[in-house]
Amino acid sequence: MPPLASRHLSSGDLVADRRLEMARDYAAAGEVVAAAELVEQALELAPHWAAGWFALGEFREAAAAADGDGTRRVRAAEAFREALRLDPEDRCGATLRLARLGAAPIPDAPPPAHVRDLFDGYADRYEASLVTALGYRGPQLIDDALDRHAAGRRFAVCLDLGCGTGLLAPVIRGRVDRLEGVDIAPAMIARARAGGLYDDLEVGDVAAAMAGRPAGSLDLLTAGDVFCYLGDLSGVFAAAARVAAPGALFVFTTEAVDEDEPGGEVVLRDSLRWAHRRAHLERVAAATGFAATAIESATLRRDRGREIGGHAAVFTRS
Q1: Is this model's pTM higher than 0.70 or not?
Q2: Cβ contact 171:150 at 8 Å
Q3: CATH code of 304's domain
């Protein structure tokens, strides 16, 4: 996952900022207890620094994972709660950390401000990092799926959900008469607009973007590496069903839950990304009027030295 810009927001105190930077160096070297102690000192100077409290929670959580100290987990949760109190928009994602610690319910989606801040700070290096460093294959997987299940078909209007910087646009453009995109991060939309392949782009939530369109107005919807930032997909499938014309295709990728991985149909992982079982995709599709044309296993990208398995899925509006 890309680094959060909000985690690096200045406290307004140069000494406190410097201590956090030193703490990150200690943590990178495996000295997470020392890192936590440095952040505690920084927060004595800047007690209202939400990003500092979030960092303290991270280091305490890492220390708890290393030595199994339950007290450290409790204190990590306390730090995340303070970060959330100081920043109710939750740009750092404390809600998700609390959920992973079992200290709060697992939400169906991350805080919008967290996602916006995450990708606005990542836009300039997004493509190089995702494609080159992590071997991201989303556009290729969607291209291959369309070749297999809609060969030669031309679409009147496509909406690219969570379009980011427009990595999917070269894949989709030659298949559609009109290509539209939506993304929550303004900086990502600016990069997509510069690419010149979209007929229209908007900043916003994907469900809200679909709600603003006429019923039955789309015959292709795509989403590459988007649903890892959503839990239960019932809402997005319902929104897609309303705007999809009969016979429209809904083509997307999502992380898959491993067979031996604990949890239900939807799992929030340590990476703070959601993974979905095939059964969840089939269930929400059936409930909203989509039929599964294909749900194929695929490798999506690399992360932390391991390949991330997922689904390349094609659903058809009944």
Answers
A1: yes
A2: no
A3: 3.40.50.150
